[in-house]
Amino acid sequence: MTSRSVFVTGASRGIGEAIAKELNKRGYRVVGTARTTRPELEGVEFVACDVRDPESVRTAVEQAREILGEIDIVVNCAGIMNDGPLLTQTQEGVQSVLDTNLNGSINVVRETVPDMMANKWGRLVFVSSIVALWGSPGQTNYSASKSGLIGLARSLAWELGRAGITSNVVLPGLIETDMISGLTERRRKEIISQTALRRTGTPEEVAALVAFLVSEEAGFITGASIPIGGGVGMGL
């Protein structure tokens, strides 16, 4: 058990919800963000936050501090998809994905890292995707945003390491969430056929990996990009 405090973006559903639940179960004090709704999640308090908007992030972090005190750990999980061939995408559609998935994480880090620097201890975890390494037809905007998280996390590992702050990325494969509900059955089978374990993963499995990365035991792991996809994309 621990008394550490955690700020989880995108905690209202899917992987983010599973992470918030798992960390709460392990004794962390958790505040999650949701853009439009205030979900009810036992043991987790929510603040409204649009990660694309720096002012919204600033307000949400201030509210989280009122609940938690200083913020020890940040898990950046807020993300969206807007799939389709690049030549059919509008600029607004592309920008929305980049602003949410990549710039949103930058906005959150800027507001929360000062607490960690002051305490000489902290954990940053970014939820990317195996698509960041693999690429995928119709997902140029999503792939670009998720690839950017790897460079962001590694650069922060260098910048913040002397302050005792780790910065890591998890790269989920095909995980059973609402985000994959739009996949055709053909594409779903195709991805599973390229997965060594021949199945999809669960949000709870991703949450368990994140829980390890934010723990004391993971204190010598930083700048790492860890796939969690049942073996999909091995060798990349």
Automatic annotation (TrEMBL):
All residue ranges annotated as the Ketoreductase domain in the record: 4-178
Superkingdom field: Bacteria
Pfam families per record: adh_short_C2
Molecular functions per Gene Ontology: oxidoreductase activity, acting on the CH-OH group of donors, NAD or NADP as acceptor
Stored InterPro entries: KR_dom, NAD(P)-bd_dom_sf, Sc_DH/Rdtase_CS, SDR_fam
Record's keyword terms, sorted: Oxidoreductase
Family indicated by similarity: Belongs to the short-chain dehydrogenases/reductases (SDR) family.
Classification via NCBIfam families: PRK12826.1-2
Designated name of the protein: Beta-ketoacyl-ACP reductase
Organism expressing this protein natively: Streptomyces actuosus
High-level lineage: Bacteria, Bacillati, Actinomycetota, Actinomycetes, Kitasatosporales
